[in-house]
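Handout, section B. The chain below has 349 residues.
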Amino acid sequence: MREPAGPPHAVTRVLSRNESSHSPLPDIVATVAASGRDVNRYPDPACADLTLALAHRHGVEPDRVAVGAGSCALLQALFQLAGPGATAVYAWRSFEYYPVLAGHLGIHSEQVPLADDAHDLTAMADRITSTTRLAVICNPNNPTGTLVGLDRLRAFLDRVPPTCLVALDEAYFEYVDEPVGTGGMALCDTYPNLVVLRTFSKAYGLAGLRVGYLIGAPRIVASLREMSLPYAVSGPAQHAAVAALGLEEVLLTRVRETIAERTRVRAALLADGFTVPASQANFVWLGLGENAGPFGRWCARAGIELRVFDGDGVRVSIGSPSDNDAFLAAAHQWRVRNAPESLTTGAVR
């Protein structure tokens, strides 16, 4: 059937990258500007001040904290630790960087299908073998936004042998508002093969500075530090992250605003007949199947950029209220031009 035409429009609203829609706080801007006076000098390769601040924030010793140029850099190091020829198990669909890392590093990927858009941890545990050296759980999951609670995580970890490292990727943790959403750091003392990754790119609004961190056992952290590139985290990035930790109360107020917008956007989409799983991240997921590409192009013609996974679905970042309104208007126009049965897997009218 013919794909509906929409008005051509240059993309002006970017809802594809899961960034914070809020501008940096003035204190953070001032901190970055001040640290710019020293850019002729190398940054602290140990990220000492930031490491101490994170250790204090999470109530752990500094030797349990690894800092990297975004959590992606730490994920890369974890895949490197697994080593060529090893197996890594993770859900699919999940963060698209996992298979890229595995492929570049000669690691076999064991992709376990999601169940109702969420991790099937029982099936993941069943896939772990003697060659499995890494299991990655994106929680909340990117791109579906679904959450695995601590009870299910414990049951999974009880089945994982100590030879397999478990990486809990909590890039979107701050957006969790469910009671079961206590972070995985609470489990690190019980399971020494567990590491938890967080980032300053999302809730803290420092995506352009690239800062992430990991909490884990000292022996794992020491290995990661040995593998890290020197001076990978810039001085302005380190200073901004320390400043952001001191401004958490204000930043988390912004997070609550995003959560409120997420609730509003999902409710409007559900009212329009879309299927949208409950999200605990700063985005929502539309499992549109074959209609993912046409829907993404429709929104692009309305000036809205989404993250399209052809043949599977569309991830929509939660933006400013005006950006969200523009997206909802485009989605509604799509809805009225298509029969309800085409909203998930049917052909476009």
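Note. The domain at 13-22+250-342 is CATH 3.90.1150.10 (Aspartate Aminotransferase, domain 1). Compare this with the example in section A.
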